[in-house]
Amino acid sequence: MNRYDRKLQIIYVAILMSTLIYAVVAWATTQAIVPGKSVGDELQDPVTIGLYSVAAGTFLAAMIVRSRKMLIVRWAMLEAGCICGLIAAMLHGDWRLYIAPWLLALVGFISLYPRVRMATRS
C-alpha cells in the first residue's frame, strides 16, 4: 500500500488549484480598476470585516472537525474562505483583498495534506 492515498491526493490538488484559479480571477477582474480607497480603508469596511470573519470561521471549523470521513468537507471549508476573499476583492475592485483569506486557507491545506491515516477507504 502506498503511503498516500492516490484518490485523495487528486481531490486535494484539484481543490488547491481551484484556489489559485480564484486568485487569477480576482486579479484579472480587478487589475484595470483603480481602487477608490486604500487597502487599509477597505479592510475597515463592514462588508470586508464580515467576509473575513466568515473566512476565519470556516478555517477554524475545518481545523476543529477531526472526523476522518469528513476530510473533503474540511477542504471545502477552506475553499469557502477563499471564496469569501474573492467576493471581497471583487466588491472593492482590489485583488489584494484575496491574499489574506488565501494564505489562511493555504495554512489549512498544508496541515490537512492527505495521508492514508487521515481518511478511510470505502
Can you describe what's shown?
The radius of gyration is 16 Å and the shape is elongated. The chain contains five helices and no strands. The protein has 122 residues and is mainly α. The model has no long low-confidence stretch (mean pLDDT 87). It has one domain (26-114). Helix 1 (6-30) runs parallel beside helix 4, helix 1 (6-30) packs antiparallel against helix 5 and helix 3 runs antiparallel to helix 4. The protein starts with 5 loop residues before the first helix and ends in an 11-residue tail after the last helix.
List the helices and strands and how they pair.
Layout: H1 6-30, H2 39-43, H3 46-64, H4 71-92, H5 99-111
Helix pairs in contact: 1-4, 1-5, 3-4, 3-5, 4-5
